[in-house]
Design brief:
The complex is a heterodimer of chains A (114) and B (112).
Chain A (H helix, E strand, L loop, with lengths): L3 E4 L2 E5 L4 E7 L4 E9 L5 E8 L4 E4 L2 E6 L4 E6 L8 E9 L8 E2 L3 E6 L1
Chain B lengths: L3 E4 L2 E4 L5 E7 L5 E7 L5 E9 L2 E4 L6 E3 L9 E3 L8 E8 L7 E2 L3 E5 L1
Classes of the chains: A mainly beta (114), B mainly beta (112).
């Protein structure tokens, strides 16, 4: 059974700092990996999706990398801003369902202080 | 486009009552999903559908039922509510299985 772990559970940084969020998974037979953002009391917003054949994806100040062999992904946020404060979740999609049945980590709660 | 909409936003049920959580999407997506999120936890897949008339179980389907009679709607039914079903329920949709999933705002359900 796939297990997804996110470390740290919570992170507090000053504005302007570059930071890295970590995601690890136990079964490397994945179809894709997604990073989501969740604001308090709201639904999830998809940030980046990496297919299993890709090594990284970038969107603005966000860069996500994927190392399938080691079962790891990182989300890099450059020049953090208070508006980046949210919970960040990673989720992996298994090969046998072509990615539709996502397994989520428990998330990293990020606070960026002005 | 409204995206993915869910009703109601909040609901309190008594043990043994039943209810239907509504979900609709206007993006013509084939895939739709129901998740539950318990406090401080990640999301767990309850059921999903790859198209009208086709549904399949996720990780935690017990106590729930779904139907998919149209592309737009994917209701989730709780027949005999139990306190263990107290959670926040999210509906999501995607164009294909390999595409990003779009989420609704959630329904917060409390069973007393």
């Amino acid at each position: 059974k796939q297990e997804v772990t996110q470390i740290p559970a919570a992170l507090s940084v000053p504005e302007g700092e570059n930071l890295v969020l970590n995601c690890s998974f136990t079964d490397s037979a994945i179809y894709n990996l997604q990073w989501f953002r969740q604001d308090p009391g709201k639904g999830l917003t998809s940030l980046l999706l990496i297919q299993s054949s890709q090594r990284e994806q970038t969107s603005g100040r966000l860069n996500a990398s994927l190392d399938k062999s080691s079962g790891r992904s990182t989300l890099y946020i450059a020049a953090s801003q208070p508006g980046d404060s949210a919970t960040y979740l990673c989720a992996v999609g298994p090969q046998e369902t072509s990615g539709s049945r996502l397994t989520f980590g428990e998330g990293t709660q990020l606070t960026v202080n002005p | 486009n409204a995206g993915v909409t869910q009703t109601p936003k909040f609901r309190i049920l008594k043990i043994g009552q039943s209810m239907t959580l509504q979900c609709a999407q206007d993006m013509n997506h084939n895939y739709m999903y129901w998740y539950r999120q318990d406090p401080g936890m990640g999301l767990k897949l309850i059921y999903y559908s790859v198209g009208a008339g086709i549904t399949d179980k996720g990780e935690v389907p017990n106590g729930y039922n779904v139907s998919r009679s149209t592309t737009e709607d994917f209701p989730l039914r709780l027949e005999l509510a139990a306190p263990s079903q107290t959670s926040v329920y999210f509906c999501a949709s995607s164009q294909k299985d390999s595409h990003p999933q779009f989420f609704g705002p959630g329904t917060r359900l409390t069973v007393l």
